[in-house]
User: What shape does this take?
Amino acid sequence: MKSARHSVLCFLTLGFALAVVASEPDIPIADFEGATYGDWKVTGEAFGPGPAHGTLPSQMTVSGFRGHGLANSFYGGDRSVGRLTSPEFAIRRAYITFLIGGGGWEKQTCMNLLVGGKIVRTATGPNTKPGGSEELAPASWDVREWAGQNAQIEIVDEATGGWGHINVDEIVQTDRKPPALLLDATRSLTIRKRYLNLPVKNGAPKRHVSLLVEGRVVREFDIELADTAPDWWAFLDLTAWQGKPATIKVDKLREDSPALNAIEQADGIKGAEDLYREALRPQFHFTSRRGWLNDPNGLVFYKGEYHLFYQHSPYSWSGDDKHWGHAVSTDLVHWRELPIALYPDEHGAMWSGSAVVDWNNTAGFQTGKEKVLVCMFTAAGNPFTQGIAYSNDRGRTWTKYAGNPVLPHIVGGDRDPKVIWYAPDKKWVMALYLDKDQYALFSSPNLKQWERLCDVVIPGTAECPEFFEIALEGNRKAMRWVFYGANGRYLVGRFDGRLFTPESGPISLNYGNCFYASQTFNDIPSADGRRILVPWGPIATPGMPFNQILGLPVALTLRATDDGLRLRVNPVKELRSLRTGRTVLKARTLVPGENPLAGVKGELFDLSADICLDQAAEVRFKLRGVAVMYDSKAQELSCEGKRAPLKPVNGCIRLRMLVDRTSVDIFGNDGSLYMPMGVIVPHDNLSLEISAQGGAARINSLEVYPLKSSWQR
Ligand code: FRU
Assistant: This one.
């Protein structure tokens, strides 16, 4: 804590020291706070009938503007064009300052200063590539040479493609010299410690930082470098370059910014003493130590270790420039983070994919005794392609295949290869997302050459395919194949090595609000035989140095039900190792108005209940304030506005619910209902409640296990 406080102080002192007192008051030119553009001339459609109040429909979140309004030419999307022209004004101050964002196309998405009808200054937003940010950033012009002359400002949107819009706000004449932007600011150092710790301020203008070792760029990335007190510290592993001379280069840096000097070489991650103790840090769901996380990737089991890779933005809280983070576990409960496995490369950022053990060395990558792990991923460049990387040391280090891409671009945003071994034909099979609800299957003898086998359509889903074999009713002689997309809508069918033929579905795997892009483990030993799934849990963790969670590992089984073939989902048994004490309620009647759990207090819980509804119209749990309600008449379970069907069996329902700091995972009737919920559980509420409404219910059994954190052994 001491060092964190110290650095905050440094930022403040520097900031204050550089404040300069203005001589003449500023003259506002436009703040776009009115309902219309007033006396500005508007042509075309792009700027809409008046200033936008922030983000327009289908636009990424616009931030960095001042007040409520701004000029935003995304009205009608990127396709629309238009222009805003200011009335004439006299140049009476030394500088014109403004906030600008959006497209970076010169002459097409820009703001111009006109003197005598000629463009004398111009500025654009920062973006020309897919991705990027809608953040407005400060910019300025020195206009002293036109002092006293009449001028006009025009804001132009003539672009119709990607980033075909411009955002502007807060145009002001001022005598206060805006801090200059230093270009390619550098700092030299000799690498002597394990990490570089980098100060991040969420929402600050993005800077492009390069790390050069012996003159060669070894890492480069965008980061919202903190010019003021940082929100959190990102880290970069320096292990590979110990003892070497290095340079940190920042493409643009405000001259008064302390950020470059604040970047710190250290043996630990800054603030490591608080790791896993942060207020919203889940205690038994996987999270990244720092930065953004989304899809689980490359789930594979090899030699006693479950490998978990995940979509990771190590330098950003909001998800930029995807890498593959990496963690391992021997029990699916306690995870140990390893260094980042895949970094973006010349083919693009590292988007989702899978991993396999190449038992037969089909790709020829094996160099020693250890079997090779191979990852297949999407390189999200322009266009997207699919590539592979391999490891000869149990996933500790990774090499990209020199022949990448192994599958050229096919269509749209084709991505997220899921590879499995198809034993009957001794070949690899890959499921790939193509576009909208379209997927395709491919096969390969060696992970390098791929042949398209067939196409698969799953209405109502997109992205992240899963394709695996599973025993019906646990009978290995009655195998079926499951194919699903990122939201978990699944088909069950048969596969003959070339063609997937659906027999049922699509059906929703889950009813929660905290489930997406799930994947199942490859290479689980047949003696175990489970199909273990891990989803991404999309829930924001504001104020934390990390963002988003992974869902609990769950085991899938396939059952023949009255409704057809259905997957059942239950938490993996290993999670029971976190149980500490136990409160058991014996069978009893639950009369409205009583709460037999009133005496139980705690933070993390695993709760199992078997309840007969009898006369109760509703049975209601309050898990640390989070309501989970069962409506007997509607036969529906609801939580945080989500509803899910759950049919009583002989008048009774069974629930298993696991409460962590930012989630409640709900399983109904032995896995026929799967409802992972992302919810920030109130930290000061440690109570549990069960109650019957509108009549008595009956508790057959109710067991509550307080859980310990998986981060403390
Ligand atoms: C799903 C997804 C994938 C993509 C990845 C990028 O959440 O959009 O389709 O590969 O995330 O992080």
Remarks:
- The pocket of beta-D-fructofuranose is lined by residues 294-295, 311, 322, 351-352, 378, 415-416, 463-464, 486, 516-517 (CB under 6 Å).
- Residues 1-22 have pLDDT under 50 and may be disordered.
- Residues 2-17 form the longest helix (16 residues).
